[in-house]
Amino acid sequence: MSDATDAPPADDANAPPAINDPEPAETMDELTARHRREIKSLEGEKRAALKNAKSKGKKAKAAIKEAEFKYECMERDLKERHRQEVEALNGGSAGVEADGASPEQVGEDVVDAEAAFKSVSFDASAAQQQTQLEQQQTEQQLAEAKRLKALEKKLKKKNAQKQKELDREKRIEQENSTAEVHADGNCLYRAVAAQAVRLGVRSDIADGDGGYKKMRELCATILMEGREEYEPFAELDHDPHHPASTYEEYVDHVRSTSTWGGQLELRALSHGLQCPIVVFSAEGPPLTMGEEYNSGDDNGDGGGWEKRKAVLVSFHRYYYALGEHYNSVVPLEARS
User: Fold this and answer.
1) Helix (H), strand (E) at residue 316
2) Which of the 8 DSSP states describes residue 99?
3) What is the rounded CA–CA span in Å between residue 35 and residue 39?
4) C-alpha R_g of the chain
5) Strands 277-281 and 311-316
6) Where is the region Disordered (predicted)?
7) Residue pair 143/297 in contact by the 8 Å Cβ criterion
8) How far apart are CA 172 and CA 165, in angstroms?
9) Which among 314, 312, 242, 190 has a CA at the least distance from the CA of 230?
10) Does 104 score more than 80 pLDDT?
11) How far is the C-alpha of 239 from the C-alpha of 72, rounded, in Å?
């Protein structure tokens, strides 16, 4: 009879379950491969996020900057985790592992990961620069469109003024004939001289080209004699056509240069010729200078003057390429 102690122990139903062996740890090659997959995955997420940020329109710049910051943090965290995992697998030692991977090789993998993220960051910077360039181009296009629109508006206004002037010219021509005078700084004086010959108010002016000089002399004389009346209206310094700082210089320019004349000079000439001067223009009804010399006959044009006893000139602001210009106006009946 055998001893009970020699028999093998019976299975104990209450014995604790056997403990399974832990899963085998990653080898260095497996760890490196997983790290590469995680880097590639994060890189893809970053590219997608930057692409989405770029499509935000006006908010693209801020969205790109936010995405860059977010993924820089995620990149930093991922690199730190990878470093810790490599150290844990190496057990803090610097030897060569059984699978052949060394810390130097792992370091190369980390460098590759950093290069990959720098590439994504470069793409983000390029995307941001492209967005800024597109915004600048859009702003430039809008500015150019605005400039062209303003230019078109200006041209339309000028063309409208020119057409208005042409229409008024046609109405003037129904009862008058415009006599062209030479377009230079003497045009006002030439036109008035031609009218003085027509009216016979100056016997010393022959029907020729030199009459404008006598009109200039007459105008300068009246301006000096009536200084108190005319000087307040003389534009000194501010008038580009009259580069004079004193009234004497202003009058001297009227007398001896080809300085353009205007309403002040017409008013003085009206006084010197002792007759009204009527100015036709596209800008309104006829303007009469020297109404005190009016004969009292009104022909219905609103000026209260008689054509045969008034100097008639036409003023053109836009019709001539050189700018403002005066012509002589001759009533049709005066030619019959």
Assistant:
1) strand 311-316
2) T
3) 6
4) 49
5) parallel
6) 1-61, 82-106
7) no
8) 10
9) 242
10) no
11) 66
Residue 5 buriedness (CB in 10 A; 0-12 / 13-18 / 19+): exposed
Would the pLDDT of 114 be above 70? no
Tokens of 155: 């041209």
In the numeric block, which tokens belong to residue 261?
Answer: 């004349």
Q: What is the pLDDT of residues 166-197, one digit of tens each?
A: 666 666 655 667 788 888 889 999 999 999 98
Q: What would the DSSP string read from start to end of 197-217?
A: HHHT--TT--SSTTHHHHHHH
What is the spatial distance between Cα 75 and Cα 116, in angstroms, rounded to a whole number? 11
Task: Return the SS3 of 271.
Answer: helix
- Terminal C-alpha separation, the chain: 172
Give all domains of the chain, ordered by start, each with its CATH number.
28-92+100-150 (1.10.132), 180-335 (3.90.70.80)
Nearest to 305 by CA among 262, 266, 335, 275: 275
C-alpha count within 13 angstroms, C-beta hemisphere, residue 285: 6
Contact 270, 289 (CB under 8 A): yes
Angle of helix 263-273 relative to helix 211-225, nearest 10 degrees? 90
Tell me, rounded to whole angstroms, the distance of Cα 177 from its chain centroid.
Answer: 45
How do residues 189-231 score in pLDDT, each as one tens digit? 999 999 998 888 877 776 556 789 999 999 999 999 999 999 9
DSSP 8-state class, residue 22: P
Q: Looking up tokens 């003024």, which residue turns up?
A: 161
Query: Given CA atoms 130, 44, 66, 110 in this order, what sign does their dihedral have?
Result: negative
Across the range 70-99, mean pLDDT stands at 76
Residue labelled with tokens 């004699």: 225
Which 8-state DSSP code applies to residue 293? G
Q: Give me the amino acid identity at 122.
A: F
Burial 36-56 (b: 16+ CB within 10 A, else e): eeebeebbeebbebbeebbee
Secondary structure class of 131 (helix, strand, coil):
helix
